[in-house]
Amino acid sequence: MSPVTRRIDDHGVIGDMRTCALIATDGTLDYLCWPNLDSPSLFTALLDDERAGYFALAPDWPDARRQQRYLPESNVLQTRWLSEHGVVELTDLMPVAADPDALPCVIRRVTAIVGEARLQLRCHPVADYARARPDTSQPDPGCVRFDFATDHAPSLALTATRPLTLEDAGASASFVLRAGEQAEFRLGAADDPRLRAHADDSLPRTLAWWQRWARQSHYRGRWREAVTRSALVLKLLTSRRHGSIAAAATFGLPETIGGERNWDYRAAWIRDASFSMYALMRLGYIDEASRFTQWVAGCVAHSHAGNSNLQIMYRLDGGTELHEISLPHLAGYAGSRPVRVGNDAWRQQQLDIYGELLDAIYLANKYGEAISARGWQHISQLTNWLCEHWQQSDAGIWEMRGEPQHFLHSRLMCWVAIDRALRLGEKRSLSLPRTRWEAARNAIREEIWQHFWCAEGGHFSATRHGRSLDASLLLMPLVRFVSATDPDWLSTLEAIERALVSDGRVLRYRQQDTPADALCGEEGHFVACSFWYVECLARAGRVDDAQQTFEKLLTFATPLGLYAEEWDARGYARGNFPQALSHLALISAAVFLDRKLSGEKSLWQP
To answer: 97: which DSSP letter?
Structure first.
């Protein structure tokens, strides 16, 4: 295993709903795709070393204590150094432009709070996944221009309120700040007028934008800080241009150190995005639900397979192809290779996505605007297709790369899809083939009870006529297929606890029991499944256990309250970061558990 200069946990994330950047506690911006979240990278040192691009800014205090925090209810990040010599603060942000098509701009403002400090800056962008070094020029002492011989990165510029120096295809600066003094650096498109507007109100305006959005939340419960941070993460991952929601901000961060499970999550999974929309709606963010519904409608209309057979994932702009390639020139985080971009899972069939999508659309219509006539036509086509194909095998929720299987979770969500379509049609008095849909829904229910129940183990099984367990079974009571206090479900929950739960953290499955997992290496504990477990405990009446487990899971967040996809055995972040599925599961568990503790009846019923 290669040494890790900066752990995943040591990062904060900023963004403008077009792209995101990761900034470590040492002041280094070591991950940024530009200009879009799914564009090739500009800085990728997190996945290799400084040769892959970085933007460092820090005082010459190697022994200083380092802290990071977000300014209240915002995605404006502040990094602090505390030393016997003084205190320095670095504030990082991407302004939210009035025009959603505006190219991103990174603003880095450093201030000496106490004492005197010498600051060092080095900015070395390497575009196109660290394959294109720039030609640099210096129009004036406060500006360095970066021109790339690739279409993947337009010309960029770094401007500063302190003199810059050209340095080996990059820029550097060394300067002293005394108490009360500050310097500012802006990186963006070379022709962006904001780069020269160092005295403008970008910081207070961006801070106010995020705070206005955060304060629209209806949640006033016990874990407001954690819920608000999770909502802000989901908003960061929401495309302001398209209305889609990315699964995560990054590519290539490993689920297992040194292993091959290194995927690209900078795309919109129908499942994850639907769950995200559901979580945001629970907090009162109805506009996001409307935008997402419009984006999905476009995906359906332009799918390669026509209006019925959905892909499991799409590009953020609704594009259909996400071809997977490896980047052999990148060493990978802690030597975890191959580093992949694109994701061949877009070719898989995963029947569960219909359930997540129709559940979200049903709730959006129940608590928001009524579905359009064309929208109902699409829903009807999807449901009719599912009535004919729900018995097929597929790759399942975890995107197994082995042979397709008959997964309980896929059957379960097919049942949800048809059930929600029926409910939606009844609520809006819409035309539908009721007899056909009801027959299919009933057939799926019978199939699950007859063929996915393991009598020997006394629990539901992850696969047809199987014996193995899978944490996706935790969704059975959450989607109200089975009562959370049904004896058969409670025995399943107990079996999951014995096989998959450790210290409140939940494995998705055991590799040795899952032939469809054709990859090498063990996984970590899955964050979303752990929060699903909390909600199952609360629904089963084990409220004290649920609260204790939830509080424990909060301690496994990064210092900024962020979650990746998984944890390793020591509770450190693994996988892409921050992960939408993790944060939306936290929101769902917090909202439900808070209402249980308060004795309130949930308003969110399908």
So the answer is: -
